[in-house]
Structures are given as C-alpha cells and as structure tokens.
Amino acid sequence: MVPKMNDFINTITNIRTLRSVCKDLSIKELRSALEKLTEIVDEREEEENRKNEENRKKIEAISNIRAIMAEAGIKATDIQNLISDNNISPPQKRNVPPKYRFTTADGQIQTWTGQGRTPLEFINCIKREGKRKEDYLIKDKKL
User: Fold this and answer.
1) Which among 21, 27, 110, 118 has the fewest CB atoms less than 10 Å away?
2) 0.70 exceeded by the pTM?
3) How many CB atoms within 10 Å of residue 18?
C-alpha cells in the first residue's frame, strides 16, 4: 500500500486519531462524511450479497450436475477423457476467399474478405481514389 493510504486507514480505524482529526469539523460536515461512508458500506454489502448469491447458485448447479452424473453413472474422469480425446473439437475457421482488392498508399496490393472491421488502408484507399467500395470487388476471383 501507498504510505498515504496507510495513514488514512490508520486514521479512520483508530477512534482517538479520528476524534482528533474531526474535532474542527462542524456537525453538518461530520454528517455528510457519515452519509458518504454509509453509502460506501451499503454498496459493498450489496456487492458482497450479489457475489454470495452467485456462488450459492453455482454450488447448487454443481450439486444438480453431480446428481445427474451419479444417476447416469458418469464420473468426472469420463468427461475429462471425452474432452482430452478431442471428441469435442473447437469450431473450425473457414477459409473465406477475399472479396475486395485495393492498393495501399505505398503501392502494395492488399485484399479483404469483406468480413469484420474494414481495414483502415481500404478506407484510406477509397478516400484517396474517390471511388466506392463496390469498385474494389474482385470480379475474376483469381489472385
């Protein structure tokens, strides 16, 4: 922790030090500080309660899954083996052919599939050459 933070924590958690620091504050200022601290405490309690509820739901779900597995005669090792045997494969990437062909400012020919975010070089090319996006469509589909 930063030394200043340690000083603050020591001040706020020690009644004698806190009294000393607060002696020149008005009642209005003390009540304002109290309201702000109370708001922080309430927010923290709500967050902790939310996390506890999420954990309770997870534990309940895991318990239900265990019961279903036991009923079906499935062990955790069966699931581990299933995953490690690659019976469950990740989604395959598709090889998408390029849809647009354009030239960068430095003269390099580039292509783009038309999927995802439009490359900045393509946007710059359109602006530089004053054409439309459709003008860069690859018609022959051969590179």
Assistant:
1) 27
2) no
3) 13
Maximum CA pair distance of the chain?
84
For residue 43 the two structure tokens come to 């927010």
Tell me the two tokens of residue 31. 């009540």
Composition of the chain by helix, strand, coil, percent to 5: 60, 5, 30
What's the angle, vertex CA 104, arms to CA 100 and CA 105, rounded to 5?
150
The per-residue pLDDT for range 48-59, each reduced to its tens digit, is 999 999 999 999
**For 39-45, what is the mean pLDDT?**
96
Whether residue 71 has pLDDT greater than 80: yes
Please, are residues 142 and 136 in contact by the beta-carbon 8 Å criterion? Answer: no
Query: Is-contact 11 3, C-beta < 8 A?
Result: no
Bridge-partner residues for 109, per DSSP? 103
Q: Report the percent of the chain where pLDDT is more than 90.
A: 71
Rounded Cα–Cα distance for residues 69 and 75 (Å): 7
